[in-house]
Design goal:
By secondary structure, the protein is α/β, with parallel strands linked by helices. 45% of the residues lie in helices and 17% in strands. It has eight helices and nine strands. The strands form two sheets. It has a seven-stranded parallel beta sheet, with helices on both faces.
């Protein structure tokens, strides 16, 4: 299906990341992937010892997972989506490797208002916390798209897929407040990109909402077992699994399908329930 096609996969933290399942599915379908992970870059200045240690461990976990599950020769790169210099370094790297992308998965998110499975009430969220979450989790779609197009790495007719969840639309019992607003912005941006990039470059953009999932670092840091079990009981088909998500993303990555501007649900029907 994906012979001679390459996709950029962001947001892999470890072996259980949702983005990892997508990467594996692409390779299974004869495609290639380039993976980015959080790590120290030459553009990080004045990092504390604690921050540098965290970033180094994050990148080691990411790189080890990629090599183990995607192959020793998989291309990996450290990316800080908030730094223009880091984005430029990524595009330079891709051009040096003669990589032309047929699409990318946006699976990047960050919210400092969530700590140890508890979340700040909206009225207590600071402007800095709000803006940081919005920049990393939503505006990064624009930053990444712009950088890849400007460098001529992202090809005409490519496909972009972003990841979200039902809390972008409805108040939920999941501990997402500030992040929900950022995901709502990401979904709206995805629709805008579908129009703008579709008109100019024939590029499709779609978003997929997924079931609550504790397998990833992000999910495990946020969700409680009872949250996932409750969603599983409510959903007509039970919670979707990561393979279901990967299957849908791969479908949206296929060439020659005129699907764009969609907010898709891979959640076992959770979104239809009152």
């Amino acid at each position: 299906m994906f012979s001679n096609q390459t996709f950029l996969i962001t947001g892999i933290a470890d072996e259980n990341s949702l983005a990892m399942y997508v990467a594996k599915k692409i390779i299974k379908n004869n495609g290639n992937v380039v993976c980015t992970g959080l790590g120290v870059t030459p553009f990080h200045k004045n990092l504390s010892e604690k921050a540098e240690s965290f970033l180094n461990k994050s990148y080691n976990d990411f790189e080890n997972a990629c090599k183990k599950l995607l192959g020793e020769n998989v291309l990996t790169f450290p990316l800080d989506i908030t730094l223009p210099e880091s984005l430029e370094a990524l595009t330079d790297f891709l051009n040096e490797k003669n990589v032309k992308l047929n699409g990318f998965l946006h699976a990047i998110a960050m919210d400092k208002t969530i700590r140890q499975k508890s979340v700040k009430p909206m009225l207590e969220v600071t402007a800095d916390e709000f803006n940081d979450t919005m920049t990393v989790s939503a505006f990064s779609l624009i930053s990444l798209s712009h950088a890849l197009l400007k460098s001529k790495v992202l090809q005409n007719g490519s496909s972009i897929v972003t990841l979200s969840y039902i809390a972008a639309e409805k108040v939920s019992f999941f501990p997402y407040i500030n992040m929900s607003i950022a995901k709502a912005a990401l979904e709206r941006l995805t629709i805008e990109m579908a129009y703008e990039l579709g008109r100019d470059f024939g590029i499709r953009a779609n978003c997929v909402r997924f079931s609550p999932y504790m397998g990833s670092k992000a999910g495990n840091a946020t969700l409680k077992i009872e949250d996932v079990e409750r969603a599983n009981r409510i959903s007509p088909l039970g919670n979707a699994n990561p393979e279901d998500l990967a299957h849908e993303v791969v479908h949206l990555f296929r060439k020659d399908i005129r699907i764009t501007g969609e907010i898709r649900h891979v959640d076992g029907g959770f979104h239809i329930m009152g």
